[in-house]
Specification:
The chain is an alpha/beta fold. The protein is built from 8 helices and 5 strands, in the order βαβαααβαβααβα. The chain has a 5-stranded parallel β-sheet, sandwiched between helices. 34% of the residues are buried. The chain binds adenosine monophosphate. The site of adenosine monophosphate has 18 residues, from helix 2 and helix 3.
């Protein structure tokens, strides 16, 4: 199964992708995790994106398209994959079409978690408290505001692109983790 998981910052993409990945043996390809690892390791890309990420802005399309293109060929993707937090712009969605087209891979579904802006700050603050020893540089009110603005301006058009293609499954992401996981599973029954 080849899936995309999208949603606002703090909307539960990571948690739901991880569950799906464990339950169905799919590789979880999170561009956010890959970038955070690059920063931790001090790679050239890591140094390039560090400040951009801390401000809550998007890193360049080319960087994330390359990260995904390089991961998709790995053996961990044998049973399929979930792209977690990618694509986030229309240009990335089109770039992904090229990457998949060149490999003759089709997408089964794009899941978009629907979460009201109002509860995201609460969730981000909770995550910041839980990770107090090793906090994310972008889990603060100011960066969240930026991430949300970008989500509405740039990621919504990418979601619309998949709606037009007929592969979009919008899932209510406002309940607790278990209930949302059930909603995701139900949406995947229809593909
Ligand atoms: P995430 O872990 O998905 O919330 O991503 C954290 C941050 O990593 C984002 O705010 C961006 O700065 C960067 N990032 C992750 N995925 C992408 C992407 N697909 N395009 C551009 N920037 C990304």
């Amino acid at each position: 199964m080849k899936l995309i998981m999208l949603g606002p910052p703090g909307g539960g993409k990571g948690v739901q992708s991880q569950r799906l990945s464990e339950e169905r043996g799919l590789a979880q390809l999170s561009t956010g995790d890959m970038l955070r690892l690059a920063i931790k390791q001090g790679t050239e890309i890591g140094n390039q994106v560090k400040d951009i990420m801390a401000r809550g802005e998007l890193v360049s399309d080319d960087i994330v398209i390359d990260l995904i293109a390089n991961s998709i060929d790995g053996p961990e993707c044998a049973k399929g994959f979930i792209l977690d937090g990618f694509p986030r712009t229309l240009a990335q969605a089109k770039g992904l079409d090229e990457v998949l087209g060149a490999r003759n891979i089709g997408l089964d579904a794009v899941i978009a978690l629907n979460v009201d802006d109002g509860i995201l700050l609460e969730r981000i603050e909770k995550r910041a408290r839980e990770n107090a020893g090793d906090p994310r540089a972008d889990d603060n009110a100011e960066a969240l505001k930026k991430r949300l603005e970008i989500y509405h301006a740039q990621t919504r058009p990418a979601i619309g692109y998949y709606a037009d293609k007929g592969v979009l499954k919008t899932v209510d992401g406002m309940a607790d983790i278990e209930t949302v996981a059930m909603n995701v599973a139900k949406a995947l029954e229809t593909i």
